[in-house]
Design a protein that fits this description.
380 residues; alpha+beta; 2 domains; 6-stranded antiparallel beta sheet; 6-stranded mixed beta sheet; 17 strands; 28% strand; globular
Length: 380
Amino acid sequence: MKILKIVSSGYKICEDNLEINFMPIANKTMEDKEYEFSQVEDGLDTFSSIGIVGKNASGKTMILRLLSIVYDIISEFQVTEYRIKYLPNKPFTIDITFIEKEYLYRYTTSIKKVTDELNSNVIFENEKIYRKKYAKTKTNKIFDYESYNDITEEYKGLIPEGTSKLFYVINTKKRRGSVIFADNFDSEIISSVLKNVYKLGIPEIYSSVLEMFDEHLEKFEIIGENTFIIKYKNKSEIQVPFGEINSFLSSGTIKGIVLLAFALLSLEKGADLIIDEIENHFHKTLVENLINIFKDKSINKNSSTIIFSTHSFDLLDLFHRSDNIYITSYDEKIKLTNMYNIEGTIRNAKSKKVFDKVFKIRVSYDSLMNFKKLLIKWNI
């Protein structure tokens, strides 16, 4: 199962018809096919990386909160208890196009949060499911929904309240996307993700990349479902329970190790990896390496996509294309604009284009000067 496009309306203060497309808009070159795309089906390419860029308070995190809800629905067929708090009080709609077992599907629904004195629940209203057989010769008509058949009436069975009818289409619960925010680094999350990496059966994986995180760390090896070994240079090895990792490793090293673990699990399961403000976890060189891992077809064999937000505009120069970059802006409503729709194809120096006033996301020069004047006034 692979998402091809998401459209949403009514989500908090986001604009209506907010859209993220996982497929190319612009023409594809042979180089793009080799490095920028994953082939889901014969002739059907999706991006291996998508960037969302904008200045502070422009809506990047809210967009990723919306994505986390979508991935909950396609993974668990419900909005998990943890995500319910991110739902707006008013109903909103989602429209997901995806491919599953050689069929294209379009799923639409209105999501309503119902709150009583004890808890909050979710109701899926006006669910519709449409389908058509995928054909290589008609990839340019994937979003021509008039050619889809409405199959909603085929799914009339009883399912638990708060469960999406996507259950009938996808059948199996599976983590199809991991969303990483700053609050994903508590001890419970760390223990869970390291335990899953242990099950992959590649204990030496961390030893090969230790210098990326901490040059003084000589050994980091997961040896069980709850234990790892660490060794610093000129010190003895010690065994540490997952839950005590914060006492032995720096926060930066922990973030790097956990983020790498999420990447490994995403690549192994063919799930997408969504990271909020990626520069808060890795410096630019490591970010570049992580993105290149997802671009490498010999590693990314299951069509995973890395989606990340950033306000570090220099990271845009890592992208060869412009139609897998989205710009956030906030003026009454949070708006998400595909970079290609603004400036067309941009192969190089994208960061300079972003700084240009046409994108309206530069830090205001006048605001900066006023701030400096205040500092001078108060002798700071």
